[in-house]
Design a protein that fits this description.
Length: 299
């Protein structure tokens, strides 16, 4: 039977209709109506209708959400898409779609997708890193997302930046109420903001990297700093969990230099004298959470 996956992201809402073996039938995407919770629900319903209408099949529905559900109350928590905080996301989606659904954190969906049949296939413990509009991660063990009692696995982006120098203290305020979270330094948005701070011009990460490749000094310096900060952030992960593989996602995972520059930087920052962990680009796209959402019904 057909599997439908919806990835409700902070920037875009993506949907996929998939065969049970992972073959994709149809993929759709819409811009997220930011800060409009009700409009997000409406967009998701319309997308499910379109996926089923155009394939002529009814499917199970899995949805990846930005943030996670508080395990007891099932209210939204920990989302940089702040418009879902404290909302009964699961109940509202069920009511809107009038169907049984499964809801998971988007990074967990991304991790499961890459662990099942993506870059992390064949590895036992997959740490799927999101370098996107925020910083998060999903942890998949044996092909399934890992959940602890607080639904908080992989929230490395809300630890403080390790080994800060004096210029990095206390750091910028984060939407979570703390200062200097890794996310305020290592997200794609943060990288772009760092360029704007120096130049007063807003550029996308890809444009900053184009400048770096042409020999622009500032762009090169900011990239070097960015890689060092990501390395510091992930060193604590490697020191704590020592995952079998790091699979990179989020918009910054599309930058080729990440795969040449991060491994040696990370090796310098970990406690172990050796660093053999593969750092791999995602196989199913920087937000392949849409496939992982569909896999929520792969029983």
């Amino acid at each position: 039977s057909m599997l439908i996956g919806i990835d409700w992201g902070g920037t875009k809402i993506e949907g996929v209709a998939m065969e049970a073996d992972g073959r994709e039938l149809l993929r759709l995407r819409e811009v997220t109506p930011r800060h409009d919770y009700q409009a997000c629900l409406t967009t998701i319903c319309a997308m499910v209708d379109a996926l089923e209408g155009r394939t002529g099949q009814r499917g199970s529905i899995g949805i990846g959400i930005p943030g996670s559900l508080e395990p007891v109350s099932r209210l939204g928590k920990g989302a940089s898409s702040t418009w879902i905080l404290g909302k009964p996301v699961e109940a509202d989606l069920k009511a809107a779609l009038q169907r049984d659904i499964r809801v998971e954190n988007d990074a967990d969906c991304f991790a499961a997708s890459e662990a099942v049949d993506g870059a992390g296939a064949g590895y036992n413990v997959v740490f799927a890193v999101i370098l996107g509009s925020g910083n998060g991660a999903g942890i998949a063990v044996n092909g399934r997302a890992h959940h602890g009692p607080n639904n908080s696995g992989g929230e490395w982006g809300h630890n403080p930046l390790p080994f800060p120098d004096t210029t990095e203290i206390p750091g910028k305020p984060c939407y979570c109420g703390r200062h200097g979270c890794i996310e305020t330094w290592c997200s794609g948005r943060a990288f772009e903001a760092q360029y704007t701070e120096h130049k007063g011009v807003e550029l996308k990460a890809a444009e900053i990297m184009d400048l770096k490749r042409k020999g622009d000094h500032l762009a090169g310096l900011l990239w070097h700093r960015y890689i060092d900060r990501v390395a510091r952030g992930l060193a604590t992960v490697v020191n704590t969990l020592d995952p079998d593989v790091l699979v990179m996602g989020g918009g910054m995972s599309n930058i080729d230099e990440l795969y040449t520059d991060l491994p040696p930087a990370l090796a310098r920052r970990t406690f172990s004298t050796v660093f053999h962990t593969p750092i791999l680009r995602n196989k199913h796209g920087d937000a392949s959470g849409v496939r992982g959402a569909a896999w929520l019904w792969k029983d």
